[in-house]
Specification:
Rossmann fold; 7-stranded parallel beta sheet; 6-stranded parallel beta sheet; single chain; 412 residues; 2 domains; 15 helices
Amino acid sequence: MSDSTLTFYGLGIAPKVLEVLNKMKFTTPTPIQHKAIPIASEGKDVMGVAQTGTGKTLAFAIPMVQRLAQGTTLGLVLVPTRELAAQVQETVVKVAQPFGLHTVLLIGGASMDEQMRGLRRGPRIIIATPGRLIDHLERRTVDLSRVSVLVLDEADRMLDMGFAPQIEQVLRRVPKDRQTMLFSATMPREIMTMAARHMKLPVHIEVAPSGTAAERVIQELFIIRQDSKVSLLKKVLEQYRGSVLLFCRTKHGARKLTRDIKIMGHNAAEIHSDKTLAQRRAALEGFKVGRYRVLVATDIASRGIDVKGIEVVLNYDLPDDAENYVHRIGRTGRAGMEGRAISFATPDQFMEIQAIQKLLRTDIPVIKHPEVSTEEFLLRPKSASEGFSKKVNTRSFFARRPGAGGGRFRRR
């Protein structure tokens, strides 16, 4: 059966939820939804691996809401960032409201008093970032003893951000007799270890290999000196006219780039941890509605932006680890749409690109720009005694790698 002939009927979804999905104009389930919903609706633990932007939120929201509607227990969804938490709540509310199930959002940077008022209203679904949830647990404003469904969304990112101790605290506070669902775009060894300790014979669902980038994202790589990046950025923004999500490494870099982009004549906003929650929401909303053409972000936003129609994701700086590359470029080419991911690498970042390509199991085409000088990778010696760095001919190097697709590299 092809994807186009799949429907939500026959997946064990309650008629009232099917009505909600029809009103939301969701008629065809994504692969992760089609595989996960029937299993999760049976109350089984689930480990779901799927590319970013493939509808994981509905894959756990529908079974969770159906289970909670049959009793008086609670659902808990843990997510790594404030932005992602807000977007998860937006989707969950649509499914939960028809059943009279209220939600509460517990995230850092927001009013603690307002969250406590929300908790006093008796919500049945808690959506939280780990740090703020621990704050409430320490204040005894949250009781997790009635949680029957626990969802760890983007758990690998939570571990990357140092939330492992908080997650362990939460897992000790929730009942052992519960359903646990874990969804992510990647599934590193640490997650597998956590699942083995805290999940009951989980069903592993993988609709794409861990680390797989979105199928319809065209990837390109420029090798360029650091001092030439702004010139190349100017040319890229002139070449593509749609919305651009630009990732850089530091908060200082984000501020400087935003100024540079505005000088180029483009509307731009920045989103990073120095911005308040209200400022980050305003920047994201402005990007969604087209007020800002370019959104400059640090990795705090790599999992927290769900905006339709982003034309280009631009890695102005490469991420600190290869898995973040997958999450970054997953912001474009979402839900079957086409997208483009462009990365700038300096000549000394050969090893970083090699790690990304190993995770992707494919090569990223290296291209040149006719108006901006580009470089070749430098192959660093393993130690000082091995001599000086030497240039690597990118085409010939990848062409001679066993199984490498050297022919996919092109020059312009």
